[in-house]
Write a structure and sequence with these properties.
InterPro entries: NT_sf, Polbeta. The protein is α+β, with helices and mostly antiparallel strands. The protein is 39% helix and 20% strand. The protein has a single domain, classed as Beta Polymerase, domain 2. α3 links the parallel β2 and β3.
């Protein structure tokens, strides 16, 4: 994965604070490295069985926006994602968080 150890720890800390009960996958250029630029965003899929409540989504977005991470973080809700896009993500992703597992 194309993040520094410090960046990855910060991402995990924010996720543990806001969505500790969800599995989270990273996908896109910061995972596979193709078309990666220094300003490339980090794409995260929140693996949900039901739609993520809007207040949780906005709090998480705000936490990433206000963080010291040098890139934008895009978040998708698995439950509301199309089957086609899910299939693309499942081809190449990196597990970022498993509920109940801390490092």
């Amino acid at each position: 994965m194309f993040l520094s150890a410090q960046e990855l720890q910060r991402v995990k800390q924010i996720l543990r604070t806001h969505v500790p009960t969800l599995t989270v996958w990273a996908f896109g250029s910061r995972v596979h490295g193709r078309h990666l630029k220094p300003f490339s965003d980090l794409d995260l899929a929140l693996i949900t069985a039901t739609e993520l409540p809007w207040d949780k989504y906005t709090a998480l977005k705000e936490a990433f926006s206000e963080s010291d991470l040098p890139f934008r973080v895009d978040i998708i809700d698995w439950f509301t994602t199309s089957a086609h896009f899910r299939a693309i993500i499942q081809q190449e992703y990196c597990l970022i968080q498993t509920p109940g597992v801390t490092e």
